[in-house]
What does this fold into?
Amino acid sequence: MDEQMAVELTKILDSIREQTTNIEKIQTYKAIAKMVLQELDDNSRKEVLEFVEQPVVIEIPENLSVGDVSELLNVTPQMVRRYCSEGKIEAYQTLEGSGKWKIPIEQFKNHPNWNKFIQDKKNVQIYNMKTADIMLEMLARED
It folds into this structure.
């Protein structure tokens, strides 16, 4: 693997490590993982698949982002910001007038979509971990 490709893979790996709820990115990561899995020998593939089956524990933060609440409530981020500014959602701005809100999680734990929301977050984490491990394995083999 040449140096530029290693740099690009490292950039991809860094972005994979970040939590995301973007479905398009998840699909991209899944496609990458499938391609990389095809490149592994049987033993390595087995090791990766065994690792993937391990349970994932997701840490739930104290606050949700506007995007998270948007996903949970199935409304636009703009609507969430409006609800925050109108006091319909308990929240506080990180910097007044910035549009950036921290939204305490407690008010949503009984929401009907909560379990699905948490499961989606867990799935994102699983895909990120799978892809990151596969990419690390590829980088290790090239060294």
Notes: The radius of gyration is 19 Å.
